[in-house]
């Protein structure tokens, strides 16, 4: 996390995670980094009815799920010194 903050010092760095049932621990984390100010926590495109013409109805993803991916458990916050 600190190295990413140094490399992307003028941009933004966020940690996110999701659950994946087939992954051995059930969770996988992502370090999201950008050289520009980028609010990863907010969906870039809002889906009014949670569906998209080219994807069909979405069964899992929503704006709330997207935002929740950036809510970290306490152990992760402590580990990242957040």
Q: How many β-strands, per DSSP?
A: 4
Give the SSE order as H and E letters: HEEEEHH
Distance, first to last CA: 10 Å
Global shape: globular
**What class would the helix/strand composition place it in?**
alpha+beta
For the biggest β-sheet, the strand order reads 1-2
Helicity range: 10-25%
What's the SSE blueprint?
Layout: H1 2-7, E1 12-19, E2 27-34, E3 51-52, E4 56-57, H2 63-68, H3 74-79
Antiparallel strand pairs: 1-2, 3-4
Task: State the gist of this model.
The chain has 82 residues and is α+β, with helices and mostly antiparallel strands. The protein has helices at 2-7, 63-68, 74-79, and strands at residues 12-19, 27-34, 51-52, 56-57.
Written account of the structure:
The protein is an alpha+beta fold and about 80 residues long. The model has no long low-confidence stretch (mean pLDDT about 80). It starts with a helix and ends with a helix. It has helices at about 1-5, 65-70, 75-80, and strands at about 10-20, 25-35, 50, 55. It is globular, with a radius of gyration of 15 Å. A hairpin with a 3-residue loop joins strand 3 and strand 4. The strands form two sheets. Strands 1-2 form a two-stranded antiparallel sheet. It is about 20% helix and about 25% strand.
How would you describe this structure in keywords?
82 residues, alpha+beta, two-stranded antiparallel ribbon, two-stranded antiparallel sheet, 24% strand, globular
